[in-house]
Design brief:
This protein is α+β, with helices and mostly antiparallel strands. The longest helix is centred in the middle third of the chain and has 24 residues. It is globular and about 85 Å long. The two termini are 16 Å apart. The structure holds (3S)-3,7-diaminoheptanoic acid and zinc ion. Belongs to the peptidase M1 family. This is Aminopeptidase N.
């Protein structure tokens, strides 16, 4: 297995200016003819041309119509003795789409043909310099059986179509925009489409299409609306217009990830397209909006300007996540709904990226090396990358960021560039900004891995009536990086008086750019309460020893909604970890319960916000807090403490839960707007608490109501919420409801995924949940071949259910190892994702640590492990 290093980048030896691709599509054997206009790179004369290829069969190579000599070297097709002038290269090869179980390259799903080329799938279709800095204009001819594959789609515009003999037909597509091979796509399948013509603000006409299987047309309205909203948003916010006459989205049920931004022909996992109130939850509706937006925004940030090499992946991913997060916030509208979205994003970052940054896979936002690039589509590249862009926007201001984006496009449209180019454009457009004066130091965010610890200490001087805040930073070592330079950390903050009144004029953004700095605030009558890192202005761990009184003040009064929520989480963490550390049962104090009651009763707060405050930090988050402190993680102790706290919140706040249920259980006709979603979320949380408490007390009224709710529900959010209340509350009514749910939705694959996931997410109790997962893995509807279905049990257990996964007998680890090995045999990308489940094994307490290590070794011991999974387990064991 070979390592690719960022520093080894060399420009391509040849440019490919145009590609004329022709496909004779047959599931068993597809013939590909590729005719390329090749131009030697004047900067690298005399070099051989190396073409990537994988799992395909070469049948002929012609240069200017003549056969030439070639040989293979490390899997590449090498042509030397080439003309020094531009020439035509023709390659013929075959591939076997129906045998392509990796879902990378050209593969079949549900009887149709689909492609996935990012990052290195194009080489599984034909021989090509499969690297993002080679950009060509594509013309594509598709030929296939007309009955089985009535829709023939590729990037760009349809130029010609018609019938052929033997029941076949063809279509010719032309994409005028030069693009790298990873953005190529084709679809040949039996699909129907929702179409909408739009005229944009700038007066251009476009045709938008969403392609799905025949029965799914009624579930495409939300995706279409999300696409229309995305187009309008990018034009309004960034002045970026749709540059295509035709923009297509295609849904496919076998897909390794969420979606793919192929130029003009986005291909989506069905999970991020299909939604009806009856089959999709509020969360699904929100995810569809953000993923449709994300892929659409790539049209500029990714496609018009792409990455020079894969180490620059965050150039497009970090920026596009930032853009989709901004889009979702703007769609949410009210300040409070925006804050809710921000809290959810930060919760996600801390749940996945922080552990990644603390484990064996820790890597900079711009990595230095990889074995399998697919392993670097990570939370660090995406979500921390988005935080890096957000910090730039904070440092140059909203208008400044827009100026920087404008300059970025003015300079680099049509090019393949680097993260440095992006940062330089933002800086150059804002010469006097706090970013530009510290640009080199700021760029350490791209180069250094690890989550900085930001320490804050305040000192009040009654004599001078001043308060001094000292901020210091330290970043722990990560693999290959022992010592770190200080980061540039924007710390948005403000001060409150002890009674919660804001201190006038105290709001500002401090910029910490050295190991330690102090700031003094004058004219204060008493020590203030500091609200630090508002809106989570930097991806750091804030070590701030706030007193309980200060946290209660912040929870009750901070003007920054993020920090109100954060204060509540800190109060919960203190109680949970207090119990874990003491090894004693958790007993909630009146002060905490009163504060939670006050939140629930506060008429000025939105339901969505209340639901977030009353949702306890996850077991995974709690584990990380212990690991950060260098304490061994006992997942079962954490699970027990959290369950005890949930039970007490359910009991002690019973009256409030019942009142909230009465007030919010019915939201009328279904609309996925932030206010209705918030009401449903809070009603579901209330119901979960009411059932949990009722089951504990042997009362049957609330479980009965939950069952009724489950039966009567008018939408999936309510129905799934009621089902979860019964199943997760361990009500005797759960089994019947589960059976009924399965029968109701047996034809809806995405709903059956939910049915598996809900059971795999149940709070563990005496090993019942893991036993159920093992049984469900043998269910006739379960399959590892479909990534969504595989993940529904396995990723849910490993990522979201530590109580079920970390067992003192190691049985769930062994089960995991067996599944990783099995999946690795046919789908390395899916396997290597799952293989990361035990990345944090070193942080575990015994016996988990030893058992986890043994399970990883079990995976590593598999002969012929894919390079993808090999990279993960090798790093984990290093
Ligand atoms: N760019 C794709 C991800 C491709 C993943 C390849 N392993 C989706 C996205 O980020 O929009
Ligand atoms: Zn993306």
């Amino acid at each position: 297995d070979t390592l690719t290093r960022r520093e080894d980048y060399v420009a391509p030896s040849h440019w490919i200016r145009t590609v004329d691709l022709s496909f004779d599509l047959e599931p068993a054997k597809t013939l590909v003819i590729s005719r390329m206009q090749v131009e030697p790179n004047a900067d690298r004369p005399g070099q051989p041309l190396r073409l990537d290829g994988e799992d395909i069969t070469l049948t002929r190579v012609l240069v200017n119509g003549e056969s030439v000599s070639f040989h293979f070297e490390e899997g590449q097709l090498v042509l030397d003795k080439l003309p020094a002038e531009p020439f035509q290269l023709e390659i013929r090869n075959t591939c076997a789409p129906e045998k392509n179980t990796q879902l990378s390259g050209l593969y079949t799903s549900g009887g149709g043909f689909f492609t996935q080329c990012e990052a290195q799938g194009f080489r599984r279709i034909t021989y090509f310099p499969d690297r993002p800095d080679v950009m060509a204009v594509f013309r594509v001819t598709l030929k296939a059986d007309a009955k089985r594959f009535p829709m023939l789609l590729s990037n760009g515009n349809l130029v010609e179509s018609g019938t052929l003999d033997k029941g076949r037909h063809f279509a010719v597509w032309h994409d005028p925009h030069p693009k790298p091979s990873y953005l190529f796509a084709l679809v040949a399948a039996d699909l129907v489409c929702r179409e909408q013509k739009i005229r944009t603000r700038s007066g251009q006409d476009h045709t938008l299409q969403v392609y799905v299987r025949a029965g799914d047309l009624d579930k495409t309205e939300h995706a279409m609306n999300s696409l229309i909203a995305s187009i309008a948003w990018d034009e309004a916010r960034f002045g970026l217009k749709l540059d295509l006459e035709r923009f297509m989205i295609v849904a496919v049920s076998d897909f390794n990830m969420g979606a793919m931004e192929n130029k003009g022909l986005n291909i989506f996992n069905t999970k991020f397209v299909l939604a009806s109130p009856a089959t999709a939850t509020d969360v699904d509706f929100g995810n569809i909006e953000s993923v449709v937006g994300h892929e659409y925004f790539h049209n500029w940030t990714g496609n018009r300007i792409t990455c020079r090499d894969w180490f620059q992946l965050s150039l497009k991913e970090g920026l596009t996540v930032y853009r989709d997060q901004e889009f979702s916030q703007d769609m949410a509208g009210s300040p409070s709904a925006r804050a809710v979205k921000r809290i959810e994003d930060v919760r996600g970052l801390r749940q996945t990226q922080f552990p990644e940054d603390a484990g064996p896979m820790a890597h900079p936002v711009r990595p230095d090396s990889y074995q399998a690039i697919d392993n670097f589509y990570t939370a660090t590249v995406y979500d921390k990358g988005a935080e890096v862009v957000r910090m730039m926007a904070t440092l140059v201001g909203r208008e400044g960021f827009r100026r920087g984006m404008d300059l970025y496009f003015a300079r680099h449209d049509g090019q393949a560039v680097t993260c440095d180019d992006f940062a330089q454009a933002i800086a150059d457009a804002n010469p006097d900004s706090a970013l530009t004066t510290r640009l080199d130091a700021f760029k350490r965010w791209y180069a250094q891995a690890g989550t900085p610890r930001l320490k804050a200490a305040g000192r009040f001087d009654a004599e001078t009536r001043s308060w001094t805040l000292t901020l210091s930073q330290h970043t722990p070592a990560t693999p290959g990086q022992t010592d770190k330079w200080p980061f540039v950390i924007p710390v948005a903050m403000g001060l409150l008086q002890a009674d919660g009144t804001p201190v006038a004029g105290s709001e500002r953004v401090l910029v910490l750019d050295s190991a330690q700095q102090s700031w003094t605030f004058d004219a204060l009558d008493a020590a203030p309460v500091a609200s630090l890192l508002r809106g989570f202005s930097a991806p750091v761990i804030l070590e701030w020893e706030a007193s309980e009184a200060e946290l209660f003040t912040l929870l009750g009064h901070d003007t920054d909604a993020f920090n109100r929520w954060e204060a509540g989480q800190r109060l919960a963490v203190a109680r949970l970890l207090g119990a874990v550390r003491a090894g004693a049962p958790l007993v909630l104090d009146a002060a905490y319960l009163d504060a939670m009651r006050a939140v629930l009763r506060d008429a000025a707060l939105d339901c969505a916000f209340k639901e977030l405050v009353l949702t306890l930090p996850s077991e995974g988050y709690l584990a990380e807090r212990l690991a950060e402190a260098g304490e061994p993680v006992d997942p079962q102790a954490i699970h027990a403490a959290r369950e005890a706290m949930r039970a007490q919140l359910a009991r002690e706040l019973h009256e409030d839960w019942a009142a909230l249920w009465d007030a919010h259980a019915s939201t009328g006709g279904y609309r996925p707007d932030p206010v209705s979603c918030g009401r449903r979320a809070l009603a579901n949380l209330a119901l979960a608490n009411l059932v949990l408490d009722a089951v504990a007390r042997g009362d049957t009224v609330w479980p009965g109501r939950a069952l009724q709710r489950f039966k009567d529900a008018g939408n999936m959010t309510d129905r799934l919420g009621a089902l979860a209340a019964l199943v997760h509350g361990r009500s005797p009514l759960a089994a019947g409801a589960l059976e009924r749910f399965h029968a109701m939705f047996r034809g809806e694959a995405l709903v059956i995924d939910k049915w598996f996931a809900l059971q795999a997410a149940a709070p563990e109790h005496d090993g019942e949940v893991f036993a159920r997962i093992r049984t469900l893995a043998k269910h006739p509807d379960y399959s590892l071949r479909n990534p969504n279905r595989a993940r529904s049990l396995l990723m849910t257990m490993t990522a979201l259910n530590p109580g079920a996964f970390h067992r003192a007998d190691g049985s769930a680890y062994a089960f995991w190892a067996e599944k990783v090995r099995e999946i690795d045999g046919f789908n390395p990308q899916l396997a290597s994702r799952l293989a990361r489940a035990l990345d944090r094994w070193r942080a575990l307490a015994e016996p988990y640590r030893t058992l986890a290590r043994a399970a990883i070794e079990q995976v590593a011991a598999k002969p012929e492990l894919s390079p993808d999974t090999r990279e993960i387990v090798t790093r984990a064991l290093a």
